[in-house]
Each structure stands twice: as structure tokens, then as C-alpha cells.
Amino acid sequence: MRLNDFPTFSDSPFFYDRRTISIPQQEQHIVQPHSAPKVAYYHPQGVGNYHYGERHPMRPQRLELTNQLVLGYGLQDKMTMHAPRKATDEELLGFHDSDYIDFLRRVTPKNAGSLANDGAKYSIGENYDCPVFYDMFAFCQQYAGASLAAARKLASGATDIAVNWSGGLHHAKKGEASGFCYVNDIVLGILELLRHQPRVLYIDIDIHHGDGVQEAFYLSNRVLTVSFHKYSADFFPGTGNLSEIGSDLGKYFSLNVPLQDGIDDESYISLFKAVMEPTITNFRPSSIVLQCGADSLGCDRLGTFNLSIAAHGECVRYIKEFGLPLLVLGGGGYRQSSVARCWAYETGVLAGVQLPDDLPPNNYYEFFGPDYKLHPPLTGHIQNLNTKQSLERIRMTIREKLRYLNGAPSVQMQEIPPDLMGFLADEERNKEEREEEEGNADAGEHRDDGKQKHNEWMDREGGDVANGRPIGSTKRPRIKV
Ligand SMILES: [Zn+2]
């Protein structure tokens, strides 16, 4: 172990890393008090039309159901609406291995048989959780493109909150698919934010551990990851123990809240707030990325928690109230009608609109029977195995770890050298992306030139992103997201 070679956070006023380029101070980018935050909503066109396969629990159609409820409630009048472009290869390579992206691009249901050996290498195919399906790569490009566009908009200061329900695929690894996730749009979005901001907080309320994001930033102290999830040896992905706290520079910058079946609204919300308040106060993030996997709701087909939509949404509201730039993403969720209700409700929370309980007429109205309400009863079906004592023990352990974040890490701030901003020749960028980079953007999602600036914040020696294989258990039970 090299623990003694590195200062812990509390030892040093600056956090050490290997970067050579600094960035302007953007720490004061806080939503103005008394003004409604600006919300930008990203929905890639046709993203609900993909199919993982007849019997597969992941249904992209839930994204269209969500969008229909959002539009049915008239929320488009309270937000800017964006149909983002697809992510380019270069953008995907900001995190993923080129051979892996190459495989994702090449493989089709027709040639999957002849590429089965490669498939096995990347955990993709009929024997894996991640099947090959028609236009799979386009699906990945769409949801990742949306998270990247949302992150760019947020980093530019052109919006306070950005939402992409098609994103949040937190299990994908640098060179491997996992748990229904192929490309990790969250890691890509966070890397985009890190080009402009010193610290990003990642919060994950999916029922599954946010292992792909944790792994990517396990060695970094610029991203603090916090995941609330069910943890047991036989539940996917099998990681997310309290003892996984990060390593090297990233020690104490990964937090895990391992829970048992049936956690109810009251326990979840009080633990969530008890963990998040000191985390945000101590880490002082420049922005927050919130993964809102809806498989933590009661009555999910794969999840075994007992949360109501109101409680899930209360976590979103609580984080919004901190007034920091906020990127909100989807994730798991395997009861389509619940997912759509939940994310529509949370869109309302973010847009500051109270939605009536009667669902509005929409193209998928019949999916929401028999009650046709926004808040159907979802709770009380599973016994709560979390005792007061076990939850208190988790709370105390995490608070203890947070003491090591005594004062936020800092980076030495300088002006961005002009030639860095000019990495892409001006004429290669369209007007929107130029404006976005200058901080007075409107939108950058229409660029289609296949170009992207080099990610200056990525340590060229790999210091920010873990290259290695999994943290904690390398034996992952292959069940579900
Ligand atoms: Zn999940």
C-alpha cells in the first residue's frame, strides 16, 4: 500500500494531482436566491423506440412514456426543450476503450454469432445481461449525446438544472458492458463538467450500486461518489460495501450506503438527508450529478425497496434546494408505468411545478390504469429488513468518514490559456458551441462535426480515471442492473 505517500485531504490545503493546466474559478456559480432556476430538458428523438428484446426487463419505451407525461402536464412551458445530437466516437473515447467502442459500432444481431468471442470479452451477447439488439450503438450514442449536451450546457452557465432521463447508465465500464449498460454517459458527463469545474458530487439513488461511476473515479479526489443501494452477496453487482471508500488520492471520496430489502420512505429520506447534508457541506462541490434510478420504488420488477414516488422525489427536491448546478439523469426502473410517473413527477419538482394527481391525457394513457393517478400506492408490500440500529450504524460510519473531508479540496486557479480554448479551430465549431464555451451559450447539441476538444482535465497518465479492474469484489453476481 502507498497510503503514506499521499497526503490525505485534511493534510493539505490543495489536493494533489498531476495536472498541468488550471481553470478559472467557477465556485460561485450558484443559483440566484429568489429566482426560479432555469431547467433544460433533453430528450433524444426516438430514444424510446429501441428494444433490448422481447423478454428483457429494460424497456427504452419507458422514456417515451415519461416524455408523454411531461408534455401532457405542460412542463415544456417551464423548461427549455432539447433534442440533442448523438455523441461522436471521440466523445465516447473520452472514457471508453477504442476496441470496445469499435465492437459496439460493428456488432449487429446478424453478425453477433460470428463475433461471439469478442462479445464474451465485452460481456455482450445472448449469454449476458447486455444483449445485442438492432441499432444498439445508435441508442448508446443518443443517450450519451444527451448527457454530454446537458453537461456542456450546465458547465457553460446557460442553465441551472439539466435533465436527461435517457441517461444514468451507471454500470458500464471503460471496456465492458454491464447490467444493461453499454456506454457510461454519467462518467462522460462528469468528465465534461471537470473540464470547467474543480469538484463534482455524484449521487446515485438507483437500487443497484453505482459501480461503474465509482470505479471510474475511485482514485480521484475531484469526484465524490455516493451510492444508496441494496447490498447483499447475491444482488447485482455485489459491490458497494461500507468499506469501499476510494483509494490513493481518492481515499474517502467514495461513499456507500448499503441497505437491505424493504426500506421505507421515512427511513430512506432521513438517512439520505443525514448523509447528503454533511457531504455537500464538507465537499463543497461545484456541481452535482444525480442518478435517479427508479428501480428503488416499491413494486419494481427487479427492485425490492418500498419507496413511494413522493419519497424518491423528495430526494431530488432536497438536492435541488442546495442551489448548485445540477445534472439529473435516469437509470434503472423496470415497471414502466412507475418509472414514467416518477420521472414526470421529478421533472415537475425540478421545474417548480406542482402536478395534479390525475394524469393528463396522453398517447399511452392506457398504461396507467386502473387508477390513472400520478401517485398510485406502491409501498408496504415488502418487509423492511433495515432496523433502526443498522441504519444508525451506517449513518455514524459515514459521518465518521466525512470528517476526513475537512474543508473542500482546492485547485490552484488560473486563467485558461487562450490556445487551450482554441484547441478546435474556431471555424470548426458552430456558433452555439462557441457561445457555450464562452459561457453565454444557448445550446451545443446541434454540432455534427465529429470534433471534440481534448479533455484537458483528464490526466494523461490516467490519474483521474481508474484504469484497473473492479474495486472490491471482482466476482460479480450477474443478475440485473
Ligand atoms: Zn438499477
Which structural traits does this protein have?
eight-stranded parallel β-sheet, histone deacetylase activity, hydrolytic mechanism, alpha/beta, binds zinc ion, transcription, nucleus, metal-binding, 481 residues, disordered C terminus
| Major sheet attributes | 8 strands, parallel
Strand segment count: 8
Which sequence of SSEs, written as H and E, runs from N to C?
EHEHHHHEHEHEEHEHEHHHH
Helix content: 25-40%
Shape: globular
Number of helices: 13
User: N- to C-terminal separation?
Assistant: 32 Å
Physical arrangement of strands within the biggest beta sheet: 2-1-3-8-7-4-5-6
Structural class: alpha/beta
Overall pLDDT confidence: 84
Unreliable runs: 1-29, 411-429, 440-481
In angstroms, what is the radius of gyration?
Answer: 21 Å
- Bound compounds, please? zinc ion
β-sheet strand percentage:
5-15%
Overview of this protein structure:
- There is one protein chain.
- This protein is of the alpha/beta class and 481 residues long.
- Helix content is 30%, strand content 8%.
- The protein has an eight-stranded parallel beta sheet, with helices on both faces.
- Helix 7 links the parallel strand 4 and strand 5.
- Helix 1 crosses helix 10.
- The protein is globular and about 55 Å long.
- The protein starts with 38 loop residues before the first strand and ends in a 43-residue tail after the last helix.
- The site of zinc ion has 8 residues, from loops.
